[in-house]
Specification:
Two copies of one chain form a homodimer.
Chain A: H1 3-14, E1 18-22, H2 33-37, H3 41-60, E2 66-69, H4 71-75, H5 78-94, E3 98-105, H6 109-120, E4 133-136, H7 142-155, E5 158-164, H8 171-174, H9 181-193, E6 205-209, H10 214-223, E7 229-231, E8 255-259, H11 261-264, H12 277-293
Parallel strand pairs in A: 1-2, 1-8, 2-3, 3-4, 4-5, 5-6, 6-7, 7-8
Helix pairs in contact in A: 3-5, 3-12, 6-7
Chain lengths: 301, 301
C-alpha cells in the first residue's frame, strides 16, 4: 500500500492524528532505564535505550498511528546508538506503527541517493530497517531532492520536506524574498508530489509545517493541497490544537501532529504523579493530546 | 589551537589546499578491499571499508592537509558503517589530518545540540570521535545554527555552513529573492563568525561554496572576508582551478578545495593503469590535483 493510504489507514484505526516524537535523552529516561543508561558508557546507554524504546513503543502502539524517531539523539551514542535506532524502527514497524525517520537529510544527488537508501530502502544489503517516511531538507534544490522522490516511488515510502519549521527563528531564511522562500518550496513540494498521488487523493510527498505557526497553515495547505503535513512542536514547543484545523479535510485526513517531550517526559510531570509508573503517565499524556486534537480532526473515527 | 589556525598550519605544512572527500562505495573499492566488501553483508563491507580507509588515509596523509568523510555512505552500512566512520575519523586525526565531517546537519535548537555533540564534542560519554569541523545546513535559521556555534567555540572546532552548493540546481532556492538567499546566508555566516575570529584573522565559521561556481566566488568572499571556504566539486563535478583564486589571500590562505571521486576512483583510470597498484594511482591523482591548484594558491609553500 502506498504511503498516504497507509498513513490514513493508521490514523483512522487509532482515531487520532497524534504522532509521538522519539527524542531519547538517557538522563531523562524513566526508571529503571535511567539508572541502567547513565554512567555505563555509550554501549550501556544504547542497550538501556533499546529496551526503554521497546517498552515505550508497546505503550504507544495501541494509542497512536505514528512515531517519529529523531536520529540526532541516537547518533549521539555513536555506532551503538545507530543500532538502537535500527532496533526502534524495526520494533515500531513490527507493532504496525508508521515510522517517520526524522533525520532532515539533504545533499547533492549521489549522496542523497545514499541517504535515501539508508532510511527508505534498507541500506546496503539490508543494513538498516526501512522507515515509512523521511524528513528532507530542501535547501539544495530539486535535483538534490530527486533521489528521495525516486526512493519514495520505488519503495512506497513518504517524504516530509521541510517547508516552515517550528523554531522561533524559522522565518529568517524561510521567509526570505517575495514570495517568501517557504511558499516557493511549498509550490515545489506540490510539483514534486504530483506524480506520486495515490487512490486516497494524497501524495507521498508531504511537508513539515510547524504546529507553532497556525496563522500560515491555510496558505501552505492551499499551495500543497495533496501533501500530508507533519505539524511538529505541539505541546512543549507551544503549539496548540486550535488553529491546526486548516491542515485537515472533512474526513480528518491531511496531517499528523507531533509531540515529543510533553509525552516522553510525562513521568516527571507533577500533575501525573498520582499515576503508578511511567507507562501510565505516558498513557495519560497521550490521552490528553488525543483529546486536545479531537476538535480539529473531528472526522477521524 | 583554534580551527582556522590549525587548518592553515596543515595547508602550509602540506603545501596545498587540496582536500580529499571520503565517499566510500564498496563496489568501487580497489582490490583486495572490493572483494572483501561485496557480498559479505553490511558487517563484512564495513570491516573492509575500515581497513581500506586506514590504508587510504596512510597514502593521503603525507600529501594533503584535510579529508572530508561523507557520512551518508557510511550510514548506508548501518551501525557497522557508523562504526567505520568513527574509525575513519580517529585514524585520520591520529595521522594529523584535519577532518571535516560532511554530514550537512541542521535542526531546531535542542536537536542541533545533539548533532553538534556527536560530531564536534565526542558525543555521549565519548561515543564518537570529534571531527575538526562539520558541514551545517542553514535552512532553519540562526537559532538552529546557534548550538553548532556554541560547540565550535567550546571545542575549538570549525563549521562550514552551506551557502551555495556545487549541484546544478543549487540556484533554485539558494538564488531566491533579492538579494539572493545565498548572499543573505553569507552575510549571516560573517555575523555568526565575527566572535570566533582567531589570531590568524580567520573565523571558525566557514562556508561551502561550490568550486563549480567560480563566477560567484568574489561576491561570496566579499560578504564573508574572514570565513574559510570549502570549495567542493573539483574534478569529477567539473570544477576547475582557474576561477578559484578569489577565495585565497596573498598567503595562500582562505580555502580548501575538495575532490572525491576523481581521486578515490583513480585505480580505475585508464591513463593511470601503468602505475602498479591503487596506492600509486591515488597518489598520482592527488599530485595532479595539487599541481592543478598551484596557480590559484601559489603563496602556499
Amino acid at each position: 500500500m502506498s504511503f498516504p493510504s497507509r498513513l490514513w489507514a493508521a490514523v483512522e484505526r487509532k482515531g487520532t492524528p497524534a504522532m509521538i516524537g522519539v527524542d531519547p535523552r538517557p538522563a531523562k529516561f524513566p526508571e529503571p532505564f535511567r539508572a541502567r543508561a547513565v554512567g555505563r558508557g555509550a554501549a550501556g546507554a544504547a542497550a538501556a535505550m533499546r529496551d526503554y524504546h521497546r517498552a515505550l513503543l508497546d505503550v504507544l502502539a495501541p494509542r497512536v498511528p505514528a512515531v517519529k524517531p529523531n536520529a540526532a539523539f541516537f547518533e549521539e551514542l555513536g555506532p551503538d546508538g545507530f543500532g538502537a535506532l535500527a532496533d526502534c524502527v524495526a520494533h515500531a514497524r513490527a507493532l504496525g506503527l508508521i515510522v517517520v525517520m526524522d533525520a532532515k537529510r539533504g545533499d547533492i544527488g549521489s549522496t542523497a541517493e545514499a541517504y535515501a537508501s539508508t532510511f527508505l530502502a534498507g541500506g546496503y544489503e539490508g543494513a538498516f530497517p526501512a522507515a515509512d517516511a523521511l524528513t528532507v531538507n530542501p535547501y539544495l534544490g530539486s535535483d538534490a531532492v530527486a533521489p528521495f522522490l525516486e526512493a519514495a516511488r520505488a519503495h512506497d515510502a513518504g517524504l516530509f520536506v521541510l517547508v516552515k519549521t517550528s523554531n522561533p527563528g524559522a522565518d529568517e531564511f524561510q521567509g526570505h524574498g517575495t514570495p517568501p522562500l517557504a511558499q516557493r518550496v511549498a509550490a515545489a513540494v506540490a510539483q514534486w508530489g504530483a506524480a506520486l498521488v495515490d487512490s486516497s487523493g494524497w501524495s507521498s510527498v508531504g511537508a513539515v509545517v510547524g504546529a507553532t505557526r497556525p496563522e500560515e497553515l491555510a496558505v501552505f495547505r492551499a499551495l500543497m493541497p495533496r501533501a500530508p503535513l507533519l505539524l511538529p512542536g505541539f505541546g512543549f514547543q507551544g503549539g496548540e490544537a486550535r488553529g491546526l484545523a486548516p491542515a485537515f479535510d472533512a474526513l480528518g485526513r491531511g496531517a499528523v501532529v507531533n509531540a515529543s517531550r510533553s509525552v516522553l517526559w510525562a513521568h516527571e510531570r507533577a500533575d501525573l504523579q498520582h499515576l503508578p509508573g511511567w507507562e501510565a503517565r505516558v498513557d495519560a499524556a497521550v490521552q490528553e493530546m488525543v483529546d486536545a486534537l479531537r476538535p480539529v480532526a473531528r472526522a477521524v473515527r
